[in-house]
Specification:
The structure holds two protein chains of two kinds. By secondary structure, chain A is mainly beta. In chain A, the strands form four sheets. Chain A has a four-stranded mixed β-sheet with strand order 5-1-11-10, with no helix packed on it. A four-stranded antiparallel β-sheet of chain A has the order 4-3-8-9, with no helix packed on it. Chain B is mainly beta. Classes of the chains: A mainly beta, B mainly beta. At the A-B interface, helix 1, strand 6, strand 8, strand 9 and strand 13 of A face helix 1, strand 1, helix 2, strand 3 and strand 4 of B. Bound molecules: fe (ii) ion. Fe (ii) ion binds next to strand 8 of chain B.
Chain lengths: 202, 241
């Protein structure tokens, strides 16, 4: 029999406690190597859409904030187009779509200054509700955790083709941010416990 | 043409979340099953980084933090290899970021308490972007092994951390490179989060005498594989999509 010639994906290893040296060195105090840390700002003047701030905290199973996590997000622009790799065309030139930040080293609080994304299509052509993809790494996390954040005032959530595939609908609320003020959203992530965030194998 | 869904991750090849011998994972691993989904545009797209973000010394940890005329102390080491996908194709334009302890096993970080000294000429971070064949190289000093608080006498094998960006956000990966012949690899609880020996071997870089620079620096070869993508040709998308 012939062999399949696929390679295996490199195994993940934890980002460890010093991920900041590699990914946000200026934040970590290793200055002078790069001008600035990647992943911020996400928006430039002239960006289209509603400017919003998204912040939150990652909690471990004891309810303690992670103060050493690194959070990355990826999202579409206000028209629902991704800044790169999108077969439907070019996105807003004043929006990167990608953000990276470390939690505050004292409180663990993280935040992104971004814009509210537009809806993007599911593979079958239906539209998915507007969302922000998250990727979370830290010491003690062996492989990056993937989840999504949705918006609480979005009338399309109940028919969203991704969310409606979730068996335990009582957990969907773990993916929906809270609005805490005009243009301000809070999205706390719980690694364990009664409110454990839904994480995806995707 | 590979423009369809990403291959699913092999979760038996990858480490599990809960690995009690690596104690910190106990309260930081999801307890409920991960929800399996097929990828969408949200995972298949991803940010692109241009070579214009790179400075000339970004991939040279011997010089990129050193005072003018000085160099980091340690065993001069070249690491080179390719970023590939599971289809065996080189991944051009991939952003690689790497970080490591200095030759004595000490990180330049305020939370680091190991008594080995800092090297004033070593910062410990670097980055590069793969060429049109997926190839990359960096120069550094070989990191030292270091003790860490887990068991009473746990030591990390010498390693370099790698963060990798392919073209898809769903390919996002952080891993570590180990060095051929290091006996600490097989005693490390973090390495042992990977249960398949063949998977551990995939993270061990062999000494590469052909690329070693005589009288200068030894070379190690380290390839990195990211998730592949299916062709859409026979995918059940709606007509016209
Ligand atoms: Fe390390």
């Amino acid at each position: 029999m012939q062999k399949l010639d696929h390679l295996k994906e490199s195994p993940s290893q934890t980002a460890g406690p010093y991920v900041h040296i590699g990914c946000v060195p200026n934040f970590a105090g290793v200055s002078g190597v790069y001008d600035s840390d990647l992943g911020s700002p996400m928006v430039q003047d002239g960006v289209k859409g509603e400017r919003i701030s998204v912040s939150g905290t990652v909690f471990d199973g004891t309810g303690t904030p992670l103060r050493d996590a690194l959070i990355e997000i990826w999202q579409a622009d206000a028209n629902g187009i991704y800044a790169a790799g999108d077969p439907r065309g070019a996105g807003d030139p004043n929006f990167t779509g990608w953000g990276r930040t470390a939690g505050d080293s004292a409180t663990g609080l993280w935040s992104f200054e971004t814009i509210r994304p537009g809806a993007v299509p599911f593979p079958d052509g239906r539209m998915m509700s507007a969302h922000i993809s998250f990727w979370i790494v830290a010491r003690g996390i062996n492989i990056g955790l993937q989840t999504r954040m949705y918006f609480p005032d979005d009338p399309t959530l109940e028919s969203d083709p991704w969310l409606t595939r979730i068996e335990h609908q009582n957990r969907v609320q773990t993916l929906i941010a809270k609005q805490t003020g005009p243009h301000r959203f809070q999205f706390d992530i719980h690694l364990q416990g009664a409110n454990e965030t839904i994480f995806f194998d995707v | 043409m590979s423009d369809g869904a990403l291959f699913h991750r092999d979760r038996n090849w990858q480490p599990k979340g809960l690995t009690p011998d690596y104690k910190t994972s106990v309260v930081r691993s999801p307890q409920r099953a991960l929800l399996s989904m097929n990828t969408t545009l949200s995972e298949e797209t991803g940010p692109v980084f241009g070579h214009d973000i790179l400075g000339p010394l970004d991939n040279d940890l011997i010089l990129n933090f050193a005072q003018p005329g000085e160099m980091a102390i340690g065993q001069r080491t070249i690491v080179h290899g390719r970023v590939l996908d599971e289809n065996g194709r080189g991944v051009p334009g991939a952003l690689l970021e790497f970080w490591q302890a200095n030759a004595g096993g000490r990180y330049r970080h305020k939370k680091e308490g190991y008594l080995a000294p800092l090297d004033p000429n070593f910062g410990g971070c670097g980055r590069t972007i793969t060429d049109d064949q997926g190839g990359y190289r960096l120069r550094t000093v070989k990191p030292g092994a270091y003790p860490w608080p887990n068991g009473v006498n746990d030591w990390r094998p010498a390693h370099i951390h790698f963060s990798v960006f392919g073209p898809s956000f769903g390919q996002r990966l952080i891993t570590q490179m180990y060095f051929e012949g290091d006996p600490l690899i097989w005693t490390c609880p973090i390495v042992a989060t990977i249960t398949d020996t063949a998977a551990v071997e995939q993270l061990i870089a062999p000494l590469d005498m052909n690329n070693t620079v005589p009288m200068d620096a030894r070379a190690y070869k380290f390839d990195i594989v990211l998730r592949g993508r299916r062709s859409t040709l026979f995918e059940n998308r709606m007509e016209g999509n």
